[in-house]
Amino acid sequence: MAGATPRGRAERRNPGELESAVLATLWATDRPLTPAEVQSGIEGDLAYNTVHTILRRLHDKGLVLRDADGRRGAYRPVKNEAQMTADAMHLALARNPDPITALQQFVTGLTPEERTALRKALREREG
Predict the structure, then answer these.
(1) What is the DSSP string of 11-67?
(2) Which of 74, 91, 62, 63 is nearest to 29 (CA)?
(3) Whole-angstrom Cα distance, residue 119 to residue 111?
(4) How far is CA 19 from CA 33, 59, 99, 111, 122, in A?
(5) What is the pLDDT of residues 1-43, one digit of tens each?
(6) Which CATH class is domain 15-77?
(7) Where do the structural domains in the chain lie, given as residue ranges?
(8) Sign of the dihedral defined by the CA atoms of residues 68, 58, 52, 21, in that order
(9) Count of other CB atoms within 10 angstroms of residue 24
(10) For the chain, what percent of residues have pLDDT higher than 70?
(11) CB–CB of 26/77 below 8 Å?
(12) How many C-beta atoms surround the C-beta of residue 35 within 10 A?
């Protein structure tokens, strides 16, 4: 069977997906988590060493902090999910040769609720 994974082995995911899964697990709690706790919070059969490697990479990128106060080896995110999404949006606009047109295209895809929230945020920012 083409594309099938050997029995007992998890389907291979790319590093970006793994980082996203680890961050989602950290965002789902209000306390730092150890690699073992992150591993148990992720769907699928990820090895402990894989989770620990992903946490180290996220730490090296400045996206998670090691908990210095509490349990040794516990990690917590530097920013929440909304902050990370906003950062990605700012980066995408900064990299675009025509950020105004890109922003206009983005706005055309917003739901009515999202447009209302955007208007409110702009009013608060300007006021």
Answers:
(1) PP--HHHHHHHHHHHHHTSSS-B-HHHHHHHSSS---HHHHHHHHHHHHHTTSEEE-
(2) 74
(3) 12
(4) 15, 11, 27, 28, 32
(5) 444 444 444 566 776 899 999 999 999 999 999 999 999 999 8
(6) mainly alpha
(7) 15-77, 81-126
(8) positive
(9) 14
(10) 85
(11) yes
(12) 20
**The pTM of the whole model exceeds 0.90:** no
Give the pair of three-digit tokens for residue 98: 């025509």
- Which amino acid does the sequence have at 89? M
The radius of gyration of the chain's CA atoms, rounded to the nearest angstrom, is 19
Closest CA to 29 of 98, 97, 77, 63: 77
